[in-house]
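Cross-check.
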Amino acid sequence: MKPTLVILAAGMASRYGSMKQVQGFGPGNETIMDYSIYDAIRAGFGKVVFIIRREFADSFKSIFEPKLKDRVATDYVFQEMDAFINGYTVPEDRIKPWGTAHAVLCSRDAVNEPFAVINADDFYGRDAFEKAYHFLVNECRPDLYSIIGYDLIKTVSEHGSVSRGVCELDNNGFLTAIHERINLYPEGDRIVYEENGKKFELPSDAKVSMNFWCFFPSIYKIGEKMFHDFLRDNIINPKAEFFIPILGDQFINKKIGKIKLIPTASSWFGVTYKEDAPGVEKSLLSLIANGEYPERLWI
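Predicted model, tokenized:
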């Protein structure tokens, strides 16, 4: 059975200021998602599941169905605020969705096979999808998931600070922890982050998560239990989010299984800030010029 690609596209893009998930960056007005889907199809993925907000369904379908209907199976699921809350009441001051791990839970009825999860607004590269496909087809099981790891130096922005999940590994390349570092930015030839008023340096080749995960469907039952525990502890905090690294960390620490880090040679780029957009367009044009992608993806 071919693996599925799940795309997280329900975020609010608060720092960017608009719906960057469907903004065109390629010469044929392709979104970043288009390039991820193109890479996934040629790697061998058989289905794409978009996780979106209900109010964006018509917009997403009008953009992607004409391109994809004869190329790959598609499905659309909604990240609803009241999904999987198991008797809790959504607080009135809750505006943001419950986070990326909750979004993954919302795809449960659409996915029955090993699957990858990515962000809609991140470019991951062909090598990353080929390695993810190989893992999902040949290695993935209920007690073994994986994460695609990028070099930190390739993931920072020149236009402001970012948050990155910095991976800690054992001697065999398995994840032991992910440390979420916020206010992370380049400073001269160093990469630093700030925490509690202090500044810390990180190695430029540290492996970081860009939210490209590979899961077995067993993650749904595990994640639902963890989300219930999260709500118990955080229901009154309007800004608390149930992120995938939280799920991954508990998967490891509770000895449920292991997460293999798969390093990729691909260069990552994305759009955290409006000022990142010209760089994304330039990077895509360079890849097209080098023959990595056709000038028009879907012709």
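Residues 4-289 form a domain with the Spore Coat Polysaccharide Biosynthesis Protein SpsA; Chain A fold (CATH 3.90.550.10). The chain has one domain: 4-289. Passed to J.P. for a second look.
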